[in-house]
Amino acid sequence: MQKDIKRLSLILLFAPFTLWILLLVVLPHIGMVILSLREKVAPRVYEFGFGNYLEFLHEPIYWNTLIRTGSMSLLVTALALIIGFPIAYYIAKIAGPRARGGLFLLCLIPLWVSDLIRSFGWILLLRETGVISSFLVWTGLIGTPVEFLYNDAAVIVGLVYTVILFMIVPLVSTLDGMDNSMIEAGYNLGGNGFTVLRRIIIPYAMPGIVAGCIVTFMLTAGSYLTPILLGGKNSSWFTEQIYNQFITRFNWEGGAAFGMLLLLFTSLVIWLGLKLSGQTLANTVAKS
Amino acid sequence: MHIKTTMAGLLAATMLAGVGSAQAETLRLLTWGSYAPDVLVQKFEEEYPDIDVEVTFSNNEEMIAKLRATGGAGFDLAQPSHDRIYAAQLEYDIYKPLDLSKINTDVLEAKLLAGVKENTTIDGEVYAVPHQWGTSGLMAEKTMAPDFSSWADLCDPQYAGKTSMRLKRTILLGTAFSMGENPFEAYSDLEKYQDILDKVADKLIECKANIKAYWKGGDDLSAMMLSGEIVASETWDSTAYKLFDQNENIVFIPPKEGALAWIDTFALPRKAKADDAAYKWINFVLRPENVTLMSGSTGAIAAVQGGKDLLPEDKKAAVNAAFTDADIDNLKFFANIPPGVEDMEGKTLEKIKAATGG
């Protein structure tokens, strides 16, 4: 009797999670795979085949966009790490307990407003008649207004701003667990600041770094609004291609294939990253 | 909103109490932003207290995608443009035929009604009737770009970095007309149409250096135009009329090749559940007093007889400032999009977007 109740409560506890995974993650993906393997031959007539994937290979525009999206996402991830690491180190090791809460809050505040509002904020700042350009003209640094919006740099700034929190949180939690005496020992043994950073702090923080990089990379590669709104006439993003296939071209089969390709591509990049850094999923994302 | 929830609560309570009462019908509209202004919805609900109106705002492409996802269920009345009925019905079977006897077709502008009927008849059944029409063309700030008159002027180096367009099919068609082609006639010969598209793509890629940015919606276009960051753009007429209210130097310009005219229609989704309510809504919004309210909100002209005279005064002024009778005669109505064309155009647009022109 007791055992049955235990088992029942276990099943009940896991049911929402299992249902969520099955109904909202596994089933839709199976649907997408099936959809992506349907080739349209005539109105309302479909055949099984790999045509949608071949279409991707034959058209340089598509894989160029995918590679562009991937490399820009890597750049955003690297920038987020370089900017986020000192902040995380300060929060975890240097700031007092009271300041820590406040600093964390400051990092969180940008996420209280939606993606769309944040992008519009950047548009107001960066546009030709916007705040920054007007200010520079007013100070006399530049003679005529300059357009900061509608280029790749604007997209990268906007994306780094959005994802940096997801880099800081795992870093803080790993650095937090690090004993200060390890750093002291490093200095006592004659290391300078750089050696201590390179040989003690970074190796210790590696799981946090990898976890942060995985999350930021996935978020960036899959983002839609920021690249669309801040990007210029040449900035294509792969998610935009997927949207176009589904909505503008009514080509759900092609869109589904693109979706699967994006998933495979990002998974491949992460697998490579894990191999190169010698980490595993179990001791990075799963740990933090 | 609160009233609605209270009503729903009351309704649920009465049902629980077991009192048999007439169940309220829901009319689920799938339409364009501003095509169901609150005043009209309230007025309709007062006149038909047993009908509850729910509105979803969308655009042509998303309307078709939504209906395709459910096989035509989930909505009771949709309002795609007249060129988005025929091919979508052939490919995805998402609409059902209209019963014209239930619609007060006498009030509709005969020419527009005939045109829409012709474009949306499949196997002898009519799938749509017209509601609002308007045009796509150009707008310019008169003092900065006084001679703006053609689609090709968007690519004039004189305005380098000061023009904008939306990277959608309208600009492909407009550019084709400005190159002396007639894309609508080429719809019947897709190979020829592909040739035209290739030429248009070359032209627009070359033009990229001249464009400041592609606009994506009425809001960013308005911001660029009002701030003076651009002096001319491809536009919807309704957006230009709204800007005319704020700055009288910004006018809508029907291109000399002819402004492209669209007609938004009424169509029934295949699995619609409230056809009677839908017909009631159609006849309701076609009444003259409601036409003025509707046009005030949409900025477009109703497809009823004397639709232009029923515009609110400010819109009438903007239309008269933009169109002469000759311009109206020169309108190019969007032709039916045959299956396959959307794919070709989509690919051309991708090619233009990906090209590194400037």
Assign the structural class of chain A, choosing from mainly alpha, mainly beta, alpha/beta, alpha+beta, or little secondary structure: mainly alpha
| Helix/strand order of chain A, N-terminal first | HEEHHHHHHHHHHH
> For this structure, what is the CATH homologous superfamily of chain A?
MetI-like
Fourth-level CATH superfamily of the largest domain in chain B: Periplasmic binding protein-like II
CATH class category name of chain A = Mainly Alpha
Low-pLDDT stretches of chain A are none
* CA gyration radius of chain A, whole angstroms: 24 Å
Q: Helix content range of the residues of chain A, please? A: over 70%
Question: How many E-type strands of chain B?
Answer: 15
Query: Major sheet of chain A, described briefly?
Result: 2 strands, antiparallel
Oligomeric form: heterodimer
Describe this structure in words.
The complex is a heterodimer of chains A (288) and B (358). Chain A has twelve helices and two strands. In chain A, 75% of the residues lie in helices and 3% in strands. Chain A has a two-stranded antiparallel ribbon. Chain A has a single domain, classed as MetI-like (MetI-like fold), CATH 1.10.3720. Chain A is mainly α and 288 residues long. In chain A, α2 (51-58) packs across α12 (252-277), α3 (60-94) packs across α9 (193-221) and α11 (238-248) runs antiparallel to α12 (252-277). Chain B has 358 residues and is an alpha/beta fold. Chain B folds into two domains: 23-133 and 262-325, Periplasmic binding protein-like II (D-Maltodextrin-Binding Protein, domain 2, 3-Layer(aba) Sandwich); 136-260 and 332-354, 3-Layer(aba) Sandwich (D-Maltodextrin-Binding Protein, domain 2), CATH 3.40.190. Chain B contains 15 helices and 15 strands. Chain B has helices at 2-16, 38-47, 60-70, 86-92, 110-119, 169-178, 183-186, 190-207, 218-226, 237-246, 275-285, 288-298, 313-322, 325-329, 341-354, and strands at 25-32, 51-58, 77-78, 95-96, 121-122, 125-126, 129-141, 163-165, 211-214, 232-236, 250-253, 260-266, 268-269, 301-302, 332-333. In chain B, the strands form four sheets. In chain B, strands 7, 8, 9, 10, 11, 12, 14 and 15 form an eight-stranded mixed beta sheet that branches. A three-stranded parallel beta sheet of chain B has the order 2-1-3. A two-stranded antiparallel sheet of chain B has the order 4-13. Chain B is globular and about 65 Å long. In chain B, 42% of the residues are buried. Mean pLDDT of chain B is 88; it is low at 13-21. Chain A binds chain B through residues 43-44, 61, 64-65, 123, 127-129, 147, 149-150, 228-229, 232-234, 236, 241, 244-252, and chain B through 61-62, 64-65, 68, 88, 90-93, 168, 208, 211-214, 216, 220, 223, 227-229, 339, 342-343, 346-347, 349-351, 353-358.
